[in-house]
């Protein structure tokens, strides 16, 4: 008999480490597992401020959040530890975030945080502590798909408005097999009601929304502090080649941006390309943002292994933004391992550095097939001739 976490022993004999951020979701995760009789250990990661600065609205893992996590652990009667991961967080998340911006990209640091600090470093520690699983408060479903091997798969959750699978596509198979997500089949209102039922002080606590280490909502301030060379000035040019003005550093721009260009133009202009090497920002009309073709790097494929064997193609549903639902697409892999995503409908303002996440469907329970980081997007105005050899090989 398997218990509720698909483990072959009684809950009392299963140690589960819960990553507790101090928010309502991870707190309810710990409460549910404790109520079922599991040996629960709460872990809170001190990531970026030594746990001492005042909490900023929309942030996570700041001083107040650590205190909230500790209070919840006391209420539940579980051991709680605060781990100083500040250096690991800087090395694995903040530094790559700054480097990506300096390269003209728009990174998603929450993906890097899950991939490294949480699901690599914390997971390794949980194993060292003899834990049978690491549980988090993410809204994503996880199910056992092969009882013989213990292989699990990821699925879109019950609450699609809270779906966090976009931020977890880079999770490896070994990590998935060790992770558990008890909130995957709950809605956010149900989670808050459970927090009230368990008497948790965070039942009405607002959700974190902003990037935790960006204290005033200005990414460029953080980047220029870490990379003083990021402020190299350059030209702002139109797609037709005209130089329209100057800028004070490409880190102040993202693909699709309209505000802050400070250009005298009779037509609305948007950032359509960023050339880090030349410190050049290219602008054009909104129509120039439309793209249907993306090249991916650092692909993490969780679907059938046949896709990784030689040239192949598969129809999928893809998300190129966390706020958009999956949409029909086709993913292609050539004989050299280069992965291209062909979207059925155009998307605007897709930037390198963001993620493209792939599914086998679009609704509740759709399987997460993996995804990758967008290396290049090809708006029609900038797209080179299509690679006919790739299509011919398929």
TrEMBL record:
Protein name: tRNA-specific 2-thiouridylase MnmA
Subcellular location: Cytoplasm
Active site: 113, 212
Coiled coil: none
Gene: mnmA
Organism expressing this protein natively: Aureimonas endophytica
Keywords from the named record: ATP-binding, Cytoplasm, Disulfide bond, Nucleotide-binding, RNA-binding, Transferase, tRNA processing, tRNA-binding
Annotated region described as Interaction with tRNA, given as residue ranges: 162-164
Domain tRNA-specific 2-thiouridylase MnmA-like C-terminal, first and last residues per copy: 292-374
Family (UniProt): Belongs to the MnmA/TRMU family.
């Amino acid at each position: 008999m398997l218990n509720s976490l698909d483990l072959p022993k009684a809950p009392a004999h299963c140690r589960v480490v819960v990553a507790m951020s101090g928010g309502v979701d991870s707190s309810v995760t710990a409460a549910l597992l404790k109520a079922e009789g599991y040996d629960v250990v709460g872990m809170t990661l001190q990531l970026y401020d030594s746990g001492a600065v005042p909490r900023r609205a929309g942030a996570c893992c700041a001083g107040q959040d650590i205190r909230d996590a500790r209070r919840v652990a006391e209420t539940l009667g579980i051991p709680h530890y605060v781990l100083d991961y500040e250096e690991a967080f800087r090395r694995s998340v903040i530094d790559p975030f700054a480097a990506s911006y300096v390269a003209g990209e728009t990174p998603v640091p929450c993906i890097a945080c899950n991939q490294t600090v949480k699901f690599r470093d914390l997971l390794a520690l949980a194993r060292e502590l003899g834990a049978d699983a690491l549980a988090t408060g993410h809204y994503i479903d996880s199910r056992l798909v092969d009882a013989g091997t213990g292989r699990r798969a990821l699925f879109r959750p019950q609450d699609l408005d809270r779906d966090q699978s976009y931020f977890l596509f880079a999770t490896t198979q070994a990590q998935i097999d060790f992770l558990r997500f008890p909130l995957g089949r709950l809605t956010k209102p149900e989670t808050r009601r459970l927090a009230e039922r368990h008497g948790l002080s965070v039942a009405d606590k607002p959700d974190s929304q902003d990037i935790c280490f960006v204290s005033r909502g200005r990414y460029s301030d953080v980047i220029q502090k870490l990379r003083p060379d990021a402020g190299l000035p350059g030209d702002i040019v139109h797609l037709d080649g005209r130089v329209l003005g100057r800028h004070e550093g490409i880190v102040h721009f993202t693909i699709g941006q309209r505000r802050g260009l400070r250009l005298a133009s009779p037509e609305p202009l948007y950032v359509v390309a960023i050339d880090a090497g030349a410190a050049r920002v290219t602008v054009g009309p909104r129509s120039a943002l439309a793209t249907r073709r993306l090249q991916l790097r650092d692909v993490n494929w969780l679907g059938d292994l046949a896709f990784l064997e030689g040239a192949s193609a598969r129809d999928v549903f893809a998300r190129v933004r966390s706020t958009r639902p999956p949409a029909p697409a086709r993913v292609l892999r050539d004989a050299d391992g280069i992965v291209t995503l062909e979207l059925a409908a155009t998307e605007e303002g897709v930037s390198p550095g963001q993620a493209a996440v792939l599914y086998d469907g679009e609704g509740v329970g759709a399987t997460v097939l993996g995804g990758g980081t967008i290396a290049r997007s090809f708006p029609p105005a900038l797209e080179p001739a299509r690679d006919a050899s790739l299509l011919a090989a398929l």
